[in-house]
Write a structure and sequence with these properties.
five-stranded mixed sheet, mainly alpha, 24 helices, 7 strands
């Protein structure tokens, strides 16, 4: 009977992670992964963060094998997974986010398993339910970042490590799982101090166990593509990748802007922890967590050794994660690393309350718990599953939808896909790098193989649009499908360089000019007036736009086709 509880918890977790997964626009960091995963190709048109492919291309005209073994700012696993998803689902938001949702579902089972090992099956069911129904678990599973995949491998490594206390053979697969965590995201190296602290206080003899060192070796073997990549960087350029060079205080001339500058000092990071927790969790869950934290402090005050011993693994986790947050800052995604452990702690408290006060009133406790979980589910649905949240922020929804808000970029992508379907570019631009030229040649061969119809067209866009939206919707058409795509400023420069007199007669047969309306734009400090002036010129010539509407029926873009 109890096995059915986990089945229904997971089933509901699947719904909360996959329903409307494609609806939100891709406008934030998930684009930086998805765009490069299509190739896979470590290139995303950044002046502040050029990649080694660009440097190597300029120096020797070819890219060595080591430079393709990882990416300049992140380890390669998430890119490879998304590339595989794109092969199945196409270059879609669903493909971009599929593995996040998939591993988010599997993590529900691991939360149950870890809780059951540390405490009891009852705690496991409660923790799994909170993770399946809660807004943070769903949010991080519905966006194409590394976090959901990284959390899965962290939880898997933790589960296997805890299993090793009864059978040390589990140390070896725990090491492999940790290696895949490292291959997903560098912040997962927090597993090292977690396991180290826990071993020091609970099982020091494991440091003499050869299986532990086999596990360490295997984790490094799995991580070896990143090691080889960084060795190549060091040999050729004298520094490590974007993240490691920052950690070690290196200042590569190619990367004038280092990660972390925007997160402020230590005091500012501390000041943002509580507000960001509030932004990514329901108020009921946070109330329960702070109640749990208070209860733990009280128990430590009364029975220090017993309390720390009973909750030793959670203590190690929270100490290590807290140290990590001090370094990387309390962004939503980083604070999400606390969530599985927070809800396990809350579940321990609820189990204690049941044992102490509701043993004779099981139905009452069960009804209260179900009502809390139903509220969690409602809060999650309203926050991240529905296209647009309703009601009062904080009380009825969390602002996590902001990272995938449906402004109308999806509708623009659908419009362009319909316009270009079954066609291939008749005119193409020369590209800056040989690896991009090779990519373009491959694309054109694919077009010919599919017998697409040549179509002479250029896409021009107002440079004020959101840069991530531009990268995912427009630059993707240029880099991975060979269509000529230019900003207004670039097009005007193209006209001047070619000596053309008419903006509608520049060697193409069809022109698309994209002007944003009610959508998220770029930083206002970077606004230009070129797009507005270009639009007025078209209006004077009586060119009528095709208006693209978002899901609410509001104007999102005007596309002038002439």
């Amino acid at each position: 009977m109890r096995g059915r509880y986990l089945f229904w918890i997971v089933a509901f977790g699947i719904l909360l992670r996959f329903i409307n997964l494609s609806v939100g626009d891709a406008l934030f960091d998930e684009v930086l992964y998805g765009f490069r995963a299509i190739g896979p190709l470590d290139y995303f048109e950044s002046k502040e963060q050029p990649t080694p492919l660009e440097w190597l291309d300029a120096r020797q005209g070819d890219v060595p094998l080591w430079a393709r073994m990882s990416f300049h700012d992140h380890p390669p696993l998430i890119f490879l997974l998304q590339h595989f998803a794109f092969q199945i689902f196409g270059e879609t938001n669903f493909g971009l986010r599929f593995f996040s949702a998939f591993f988010g579902v599997l993590s529900i089972v691991l939360v149950y398993g870890i809780s059951s090992i540390l405490y009891s099956r009852a705690v496991g069911y409660i923790a799994a339910a909170f993770f399946a129904f809660g807004v943070n678990g769903a949010y991080i599973s519905r966006i194409g970042l590394q976090e959901s995949t990284a959390f899965f491998f962290m939880l898997l490594a933790s589960f296997l490590y805890l299993r090793s206390y009864k059978n040390d053979n589990y140390l070896i697969p725990a090491g492999v799982a940790a290696g895949f965590a490292f291959l997903t995201k560098y912040t997962t190296f927090v597993l090292v101090p977690i396991f180290f602290l826990h071993l020091v206080f609970t099982r020091r003899e494991y440091f003499l166990n050869k299986k532990l060192w086999i596990a360490v070796f295997l984790s490094l073997l799995v991580f070896s593509p990143v090691i080889v990549y960084n060795a190549g960087l060091w040999k050729n350029f004298g520094h490590l990748d974007f993240q490691f060079s920052y950690i070690l205080g290196q200042k590569p001339v190619h990367w004038p802007v280092a990660p972390g500058k925007e997160i402020g000092g230590v005091s500012e990071r501390f000041s943002r922890v509580i507000p960001n927790l509030i932004d990514t969790h329901s108020w009921i869950f946070l109330f329960l967590f702070f109640l749990t934290f208070g209860g733990f402090v009280f128990s430590v005050w009364r029975r220090r050794i017993e309390a720390v011993s009973m909750h030793g693994f959670l203590v190690a986790v929270f100490l290590a994660l807290f140290g990590l947050i001090v370094v990387v800052g309390p962004a939503w995604r980083f604070l999400s690393m606390f969530t599985p452990w927070m809800l396990i702690a809350v579940s321990v408290l609820l189990s204690f309350i049941f044992q102490e006060y509701f043993r004779q009133r099981e139905k009452t406790f069960f009804v209260i718990l179900v009502l809390v979980l139903l509220f969690e589910a409602f809060y999650t649905i309203n926050s991240i599953v529905m296209p647009y949240p309703r009601g009062f922020r904080f009380w009825m929804y969390a602002p996590v939808r902001n990272e995938t808000f449906p402004y109308g970029y999806n509708e623009l992508a659908s419009y362009l896909e319909d316009e270009l379907s079954g066609k291939m570019p008749k005119n193409v631009f020369e590209l800056d790098y040989s690896f991009l030229e090779k990519q373009q040649e491959k694309v054109l061969r694919d077009h010919f193989a599919q017998k697409h119809i040549p179509y002479s067209a250029v896409i021009i866009y107002d440079n004020n649009i959101n840069k991530m939206g531009q990268l995912w919707v427009l630059d993707r058409l240029n880099i991975y499908h060979a269509w000529p795509v230019l900003s207004t400023e670039q097009y005007l420069e193209y006209i001047r360089a070619g000596g053309y007199q008419d903006i509608k007669k520049t060697g193409f047969e069809r022109y698309y000019f994209i002007r944003p309306r009610g959508v998220l734009l770029t930083d206002p400090r970077a606004f230009t007036g070129a797009g507005e002036a270009f639009e007025k010129n078209l209006q004077r010539e009586n060119v009528q736009p095709h208006v693209i509407y978002n899901m609410r029926g509001g104007e999102a873009f005007a596309v002038y086709k002439f």
